[in-house]
Amino acid sequence: MRPHDARNGRSSRRLLVALLALGLAVWGQAVPARAGSADDSARYERLRYVADTLVQLEGASEHGAPAPEDSVGIGPGSTLLVNFFDPRENANFIGICTAAFIFRDVNTGKVYLGAAGHCFMGETFASTHGPDADWDPANTRRVRVCVQTCIGGGTGLLSAARGVYPGTTRDLGALSYARQRTGSAQVGHDFGIVEVPSGLHGEIRTDMPMWHGPATSDTSRQVQAGDVMVHYGNGVGVGEVPPQKGRAGVGVTSNAQSWRANAAAAPGDSGSAVNIAAVGSDGVVEGHWAAGILTHLSIGTSGGVVAGTNTSRAVQMAQEAGFQLEVVHDPSQLDPGEPDPSEPLAAVIGGPSRARAGEAVTFDGSASGGDIAFWHWDLGDGTVIEGSDASVIEHTYTSPGRRTVTLTISDADGGTDTATHRIQIKGPPAKG
To answer: Rounded to whole angstroms, how far apart are CA atoms 171 and 196?
Structure first.
């Protein structure tokens, strides 16, 4: 699925080029940094956690504000809603991020949506794979992507946390790979992918809203000083609604792992695909090269210096989990992904009708029918277990009483079905 053609802002794109020509004078002075070095952790913070005073390019709104239909579908700039459980905090979290590029594994043909690795895991963890692997992908319990009427920023996160997100979302597959640091180095070591089920391939768009691109799968082009950089994100305050989401900046430098630029960003922009733009002879700006993934914002500096992982580095990182990725720049690279014929959704719960407090109880939903993408269990005592692979669960009740267990299953198209199961919990056996 390709986005709505937003090329009606050609004259304003020429104005944008003139503004970008001001370079650092527009965006503020960059702070020298060796992206990927140990001291980055002291000066850069992941966009999920830290915001700073930002300078936003006023000319970006004159570029031709993105229409809501620009971001319809699954692709660069999509809003991501991620639920995960942090075992070290013993708490559930929900976060909002932005999707990077569409990737395809050249060996298996499977398709993945990229983002920042830290979007999918607790703050103190390193990776799902490699010698320092410490994050269980099963703790990333749900990843949703908004495909229509998408609200970003704090508004989107608050509504999602309250269970009233207004956009149309699709459940993606399981977390396939994520890393957010190597040792103490974060910048240039932050990337993750989640599988796009074949039934959703028809909703994929490979273009970035508003700016378009990437126009090639070549990831060898690195950021250079003065490059025009474009992205489309869901940052708090700067990416709440479509007219705010498209932003541009100026490249500063890069190395083999990371890039830096002067641009406007905020928490919620983590994961944004960043394109190096080509400027035509007529002055029109078009996203062209897949430069990287936006992951970090500097602190304690003037302007909005941002940094992220090179796309070539991201592809290299995923190899530690056995993936051979390429950037998808044209839908013809994809399998059409016709949905598999399936029976209607039908939730079924298997489990005992009686148990004692303190004993582990197993509930089995594997007999449920349909093309199930997500399982949501409410155990009746305030406990919720959910995930893309939570067909069979185990739970221990701590007090006696009658409980109603509710299982809600959903498919990739948003269809749902619910079943309930009652269980009587007796007190623990008397000692003696």
So the answer is: 9
